[in-house]
Amino acid sequence: MNVDIQASTARVLVVDDEPDILELIELALLRMGLQVDRASNVQKLCNI
Description:
Layout: E1 11-15, H1 19-31, E2 35-39, H2 42-46
Parallel strand pairs: 1-2
């Protein structure tokens, strides 16, 4: 996959209530060189 972004400064927020999906998406984004914040629900999202 080709991505034209500044990986060192790109940050992504992933929110999903399924732990396995959350981890899968996070790992894929990390492999792309992105910084990842994750939350499993809205309450945890508000703490980020």
